[in-house]
Amino acid sequence: MRCRRRDGDLLSADFGFSGSTRSRTDDVSVRCGQARGVMTRLLGTADAMSPLPKVGSEIIEAIERSRLVGRGGAGFPVATKWRAVAQRSRGDAVIVVNGAEGEPQSKKDRVLMSERPHLVLDGAFIAARVLRARAVILYIGERHDAARNAMLRALSARPESERRLVTTSAAPARYVAGAEAAAVHFLN
Questions:
Q1: 3-state class of 18 per DSSP?
Q2: Residue 23: helix, strand or coil by DSSP?
Q3: pTM for this prediction
Q4: Which residue has the higher pLDDT, 183 or 80?
């Protein structure tokens, strides 16, 4: 992606969001000076990651406009959950990157963490910034060595201000280890 505008100008791109129950396209705007960093993260072509864009509560509004819902079966709006955490957080929230899928045929978490670890970290650090979290925990299955190694390599390339927020935890190799309640219980 080549930016033909001056730094600071807005660019827009359409991203298709699809899910099991709805499909919709939303407009995502990016500042011109950030376009290269965003696209190289998405395409995985960057040798080194550029700094994350400065973001704040507008992320919650973007999530709300996208109608993103949780995967827990109830279709609970993600923006509602983030807004509640942001309002209550006094710097004590913790972001858990749950990479402990236990379903035998599912490899989505491992593939994403192995192939696009910087995207996973970007999401975690953006969430941490918006929700004023004090820590990020990488909760990765104890048998998922490739995913853990890729995440740790990617983390080592991040700024110290991001690295110091992160701890890792090896999730037990049990089917329920990745369930939200089981993960929180294990981490506590």
A1: strand
A2: strand
A3: 0.71
A4: 80
